[in-house]
Structures are given as C-alpha cells and as structure tokens.
Design a protein that fits this description.
Layout (H helix, E strand, L loop, with lengths): L1 H19 L29 E6 L1 H4 L3 H12 L6 E6 L5 H6 L12 E5 L12 H20 L3 E5 L6 H5 L7 H25 L2 E3 L3 H10 L17 H14 L7 E7 L6 E6 L1 E9 L2 E8 L11 H7 L1 H5 L2 E5 L6 E6 L2 E7 H6 L1 E2 L7 H43 L4 H18 L2 H22 L4 E10 L1
Parallel strand pairs: 1-2, 1-3, 3-4, 4-5, 6-10
Antiparallel strand pairs: 6-7, 8-9, 9-14, 10-13, 11-12, 11-14
Helix pairs in contact: 3-9, 3-13, 9-10, 13-14, 13-15
C-alpha cells in the first residue's frame, strides 16, 4: 500500500508541475483567439515608392541589387520606383543599427530588405553567445524599421562555399570549413520563423545558391559561384536576384501573342497578353502587325549570363512568346522594325517561338541599354557613396570600443587619434551623399526614358516552301 501511496503522490505532483508549466492545454483566452499574421504573398511597389537594400559586403557589391533594379526598371516602366543601396562591407546587424536613420529611414522607404548574418556568425562553428547577439540586434533592427514606417523584408544569409574557400589564400580552421554553411542555414531558418510569426515577407537567399552548386558539382567537382567562399560572383548574384523576385511574388511572363485564322474567312484574329496588337493583316507571303508591349524583357549583362542559363531565366521570368496558326507550309523569316531576328518553319510558329533572349530584337537591345546605364549608375556614383559610408562604420566601431574601455590607457591612446581622423573624413559625408545622389539621379532619369516600350512593326514572310 505504501508503494501505491508514493506513486499516487508522485502522479499528483507531476500533474501540478505540468499544469503550472503550461504543458497541458488551458482554456483559450480572448486575446489568444486572434489568427496569426499572414505572410504577404507578394510585395506591391507603386509609383513613387522607395526600396532600400540593407546589408553587408554582399550588398555592397552592388550586383544582386543591380539585377533586381534591372528587372523592376524593365518590368514596370509605367511607375517610377526609387532605389537605395545601404550595404557596407563587413557589416553586422549592430553596424546597421548605427546608421539606420540617415542611411535607411531618411529615404522614407516603403520596403527595406535585410541581408545580414554572414559576418554575424563570425566565421566559426555555432556559438550560442554569438547567435544571441545576432538575435538581439536583428530583433531591434526589425523593430526600428517598423517604427520608422517601413516594411522589413527578411532575407536569409547566403551560403558559405567551404570547398572554394579551402582553395583560397585566407586560412580557415577545419571546424569552421566543415560547419559554417550549416551555421548560416540555422540563422536563415531562425529568420524565417521570425517572418512567419511577424507576418513579414521572407526571401530564401541560401537554398537556391546551395542547391544549384550541388547540382553542378555532379558533373564538375570544382564548380563554384562563390570563388572566395563568401561573396557570390555575378552568376551567383543573379541567382540571388531571381530568389528575391521569386519569393516576393514578382515573377511573371512578359507577353504572349497568338494569331489564328478567322473561322470561314480570310481574316485573322489575335489575342495578346502583356501588350496590344494592331494593324494585323495578311500579305502575299505571310502577315504583318504592330505590337506595343507593356514591358521590356529582363536581360542580364554578359558576366552574369551563365547564371541565367542555369536558371533558364528567360522562360521562367520573361517569356515573350509568339504563336501563329494557318500559315502555308514553309520556312518563314521574322523581322521586327526592319531587322531580321530569325527564321522558323510554320510548324514551329504554330507551337510558338520565344523571343526574350534573342539579342537581335529591338526590344532586347533596348532593355540592354537600360542594363548598361544602370551598371554605370552602380559602378560610378553609388559605389563611391557606399565606400564613403564604410568610413562611418569604422568610426562607430572605434567609438564602441573606446566606450567599453574608458580606463584602458593603451586603448584610449591608440583609438583617440584614429577616431579624430575618421571624424574629419566624415565631415564631408553629407556633401558626398548629395553629390553622388544627384549624379545617380541624372543617370536614373535617362533610364526612365530608355525603358519606355515602343510600338514595333512585325513582318512574317515566307522565304522557302
């Protein structure tokens, strides 16, 4: 009996413990009944909106941000969207907090993308204290952005390519090489949970880079898109841009033109998406029409093209299709505005052809003009601005170190002149901001003239029976 009494006492104690710690369900309270916030299916950039890219050196590279800008310039030429790159090499979440107002919120952004974490893990195996610092600083950063009236978009850190890094000149410990990619994956999944619980958009910058690298290494063991292990090269940065466009609900087909004979007559019917068709008529050896597209194809500079090929980017994100039925048997030449862009059999035209990656079309060449001018904008004034902001980051870090060691004479003696010198250089920061932004805005004005779609004249002419 004593044994059963003891068991009964233990069970009672266990029940009390479980109830007190919340392991058993408790009656729902009214405040708990509210549904959790939903993650937005897409972002909604409208005319006049500003998008800020906040990040570290990967953002400071001005590449994935540039490719996203290219997409938005060409896909939405009817609206003026403003962009600001706020990346600084070496930045951690704490560093971003130091410049959150002047470098981010003063631009009155609607959206702020956050790409941080690569440096926050400090290039070592998982350390709970280091993660806690990242956790606290990122939480505060998200709150500051929201309190500033903007919508944060959380983005996972990109992958660390241990194989590529091990072949570089920078020494890395064996444990770091083995584990750091997993550390970044963990940071990214934590961010995803924050997005889910907070109803924020989330971009997985890690998985597509990682998965494509593994896929390519099935046939090329040395393949990499991140030669130094940390900073993606242009093809990898294009993969990042596509991940953003995909996860933020921006991807769509560019246009589709379908031409068929009228039932019981000699005329033609046309249906179109992504633009309007006019002046459609038969000719002795084919047909012709005018086409006014709503947008231009998303094209990429040559240095990023291998990334586009891996992604099958044209078909997935910029499909520009032409489908023509009822042509006599034979081979047909297509010219646009007097330039021959290709020749196809009537069977191929009935199935459909795609023009988005045809560099002979005037719309492709027009889009490439946009891309090249935007590259000028990024490699010129925007890079000068980001490099100048790097001085501020060094100054802020030295100030923090000095504040943490006020009684250390060696630290005070070493840092005081450096802080004063950096402060002197920062006296020109506002002037540099104004100068570079004026230069960038001038180029952007040109871009918003170059990106306007034009009416194009198409002629389909039979050249061979």
């Amino acid at each position: 009996m004593q044994i059963f009494d003891k068991i009964g006492s233990l069970l009672c104690a266990a029940v009390v413990l479980i109830v007190s710690t919340g392991l058993l369900p408790t009656p729902a309270r009214a405040e708990d009944a509210a549904a959790p916030p939903a993650i937005p299916a897409k972002i909604d950039l409208q005319d006049g909106d500003t998008l800020v890219f906040l990040g570290d050196s990967i953002t400071h590279q001005l590449l994935y941000t540039q490719y996203v800008e290219d997409f938005l310039y060409t896909r939405f030429p009817d609206r003026r969207i403003n962009f600001h790159n706020a990346g600084i090499g070496g930045a951690q979440a704490w560093d971003a907090l130091q410049r959150i107002h002047r470098d981010v919120l003063d631009y009155k952004p609607r959206y702020v993308t956050i790409l941080l974490g690569m440096n926050d893990g400090r290039y070592q195996p998982f350390n709970p204290e280091i993660f806690q610092t990242y956790h606290d600083d990122m939480t505060q950063l998200i709150m500051e952005i929201r309190d500033g009236g903007a919508i944060p978009i959380l983005m996972s850190p990109t992958m660390f390519d241990a194989r590529a890094s091990s072949k570089g000149n920078r020494p890395r410990g064996a444990a770091m090489l083995e584990q750091y990619n997993s550390v970044l994956a963990y940071y990214g999944r934590w961010l995803q949970d924050q997005a889910i619980e907070g109803g924020m958009s989330y971009v997985d910058m890690f998985s597509m880079l990682n998965d494509l690298t593994l896929e390519q290494r099935e046939t090329d063991a040395a393949f990499t898109m991140i030669r130094d292990g940390v900073h993606p090269d242009p093809p990898g940065q294009l993969v990042m841009a596509f991940a953003m466009i995909e996860d933020l609900g921006l991807r769509s087909q560019l246009s589709n033109i379908r031409i068929v004979p009228k039932t019981g007559g000699d005329g033609l019917n046309a249906t179109a998406k992504g633009g309007s068709i006019s002046n459609l008529k038969r000719t002795n050896d084919g047909l012709e029409f005018d086409w006014t597209a709503d947008s231009l194809p998303w094209v990429v500079p040559p240095e990023a093209q291998s990334g586009a090929d891996m992604l099958k980017l044209g078909t997935r994100a910029s499909r520009e299709a032409l489908e023509i039925h009822g042509l006599d048997r034979g081979k047909y030449e297509l010219s646009i505005d007097g330039t021959v862009v290709g020749a196809w059999r009537n069977i191929a035209l009935e199935h459909h052809i795609e023009l988005q990656q045809n560099d002979r079309t005037p719309q492709y060449q027009q889009a490439m003009q946009v891309v090249m001018r935007n590259r000028d904008r990024n490699t010129g004034p925007l890079k000068r601005l980001r490099d100048t902001w790097g001085t501020f980051q060094g100054w802020a870090r030295m100030q923090r170190q000095l504040a943490a060691n006020p009684d250390n004479a060696d630290v005070v003696r070493d840092l005081t002149p450096k802080i004063e010198a950096a402060g002197k250089r920062l006296e020109s920061l506002e002037a540099t901001i104004k100068e570079t932004e004026a230069e960038a805005r001038k180029i952007e004005n040109e871009i918003y003239e170059l990106n306007q779609p034009k009416t194009r004249h198409y002629i389909v002419k039979r050249t061979q029976p």
